[in-house]
Amino acid sequence: MTYCVAIKLNAGLVFLSDSRTNAGLDQISTFRKMIVYEKPNDRFMVLLSAGNLSISQSIREILQVEKLKDHDEDADPITIWNAKSMFDATRVLGAAIRHVYERDAAALKLAGVDFNVSLVFGGQIKGEGMRLFQVYSAGNFIEATPETPYFQVGESKYGKPVLDRVITPTTPLDEAAKCALVSMDSTLKSNLSVGLPLDMVVYEVDKFQTDKVVCIDEHNPYFRMMHNSWGMKLREVFDSIEDPTWDGGNTEVPLMQSAKRSLPLKKITTPQEKLI
User: Fold this and answer.
1) Whole-prediction pTM value?
2) Looking at domain 3-234, which CATH architecture does it have?
């Protein structure tokens, strides 16, 4: 299993992925699920992948050489290295997925394996703003919006609540990086198929390169501090909330009170019915 998250903010982009791959309880391996494509002063792109490892690795290799013909027959083919927009670069990624599908899908189906891959692709090309896309197995994609400024792939449910409560387009980059790490920590806590080490990239808008790239393992001091603090603070907040009272005792927030709707149905069994 995998967990990857990417966040698009006014200030930049945050990418985070785990590296655990398992094909059973006793077949656990470490494979990177993030790759950075960087051409300083021109373009910066990051690809996150989840799903079948052989498919995603094939797509990553083909993406670097895949060419997409435009409507103008005289124009040079579009690649991720000459695309004039992130939209066109994502179209090249979609073409790479379909290329792998045409080559491998039939053989995979005969082996009982589904063609399953989920990708997040984001970055910035000179001449336009940052963009972030989620790409599906068919090669189609959707783009992040101010209302939905992040994408997750893989085991997403455990890390989603904190993102929903914290992330907005105006969130500072460092705060968003912290939120992504808390989201990952929550996933690590609840699902053993997601595991360390982690890869994180933080990109500042209009820089077209970054030195904020880090691999996080179990010895990383910041991640250990955050893991311990988050668990402790959650427990403190939980303990600070009053327990429910059923008799309306010494509380200003009674649990039981007259409801505007009917109570749940309750069937009472009589002694006679028990004998039948």
Assistant:
1) 0.91
2) 4-Layer Sandwich (3.60)
